[in-house]
Specification:
Blueprint lengths: L2 H18 L4 E5 L4 H14 L4 E5 L7 H11 L2 E4 L3 H11 L6 H23 L1 E3 L5 H6 L20 H10 L4 H5 L12 H5 L3 H8 L8 H13 L14
Length: about 240
């Protein structure tokens, strides 16, 4: 499918999802990266600029300027909620039991999810997810964090396809060029944390794994298998 047609169909789908839920719009977390920018732009196409709200949620990170650039380029309203105080008070309250980055990073993602749903509930909006297929299949998201959303317009797209949509949607070039990052700690990038590139993942998922090394394919196969629980609803015991 060509990018222009994809933009149209996803935009129509987002309007349908909003209407089915009897909601009034979408709220989206803006990190300043290409995924959140494309997701927000698709929502604008689908439901209009006045029905899309951006939330910029820094937690001991500098994402405000990048998020504001995206919001301004799309002409949408936004709020900046600095969650650093809530994050640190939570850790102080439970005794700072771990300093492992992956654990504190998950906490940050879950605090952002709470903020998104708080605003969404007030406004009768849906929470717009920004995850793409490459990340979802590798389990590169936080369960009940950035994975806790109402709709995933990019969930069926590889990262390369997201970039194609970004160009069609006139996303600023500096946003497209920025190394993908969840903004969970200074200097963090998606590919470095995963240990594979988005190109490697697309080759693996699309059946073109011969372009990767056997070691890479084994690694990604394990990542996909071990993260399967993230892509399913919790199992329910039905023994009675």
């Amino acid at each position: 499918m060509n990018p222009e047609r994809m933009v149209y169909e996803i935009a129509v789908w987002l309007k349908e999802q909003m209407d089915l839920a009897n909601a009034k719009g979408y709220v989206v977390g803006l990190s300043g990266g290409v995924d959140s920018a494309v997701a927000a732009a698709l929502a604008v196409k689908g439901v209009g600029v006045d029905r899309v709200l951006g939330l910029i949620m820094p937690i001991e990170s500098d994402m405000v300027a990048d998020g504001e650039k995206v919001a301004k380029s799309l002409h949408i309203s936004w709020y900046t909620h600095n969650l650093s105080l809530a994050y640190n008070r939570f850790l102080d309250g439970v005794g700072r039991m771990s300093n492992r980055r992956e654990i504190t990073g998950n906490l940050k993602a879950r605090l952002r999810m709470c903020d998104l749903y708080y605003v969404a509930n007030i406004m009768n909006y849906l929470v717009l997810g920004t995850g793409n297929r490459s990340e979802i299949e590798m389990g590169y998201f936080t369960k009940y964090g950035d994975g806790g959303v109402d709709v995933l317009p990019l969930g069926g797209l590889y990262k390369d396809q997201v970039y194609r949509l970004a160009r069609v949607l006139d996303i600023p070039q500096e946003v497209i060029d920025r190394p993908p990052s969840a903004g969970l700690w200074p200097g963090q990038t998606d590919e470095e944390e995963m240990g594979v590139t988005y190109e490697d993942i697309e080759c693996f998922l699309s059946g073109a794994g011969d372009a990767n090394t056997p070691e890479q394919n084994i690694k990604m196969g394990l990542m996909q298998k071990r993260s399967e629980h993230k892509r399913r609803m919790p199992p329910i015991w039905t023994g009675l």
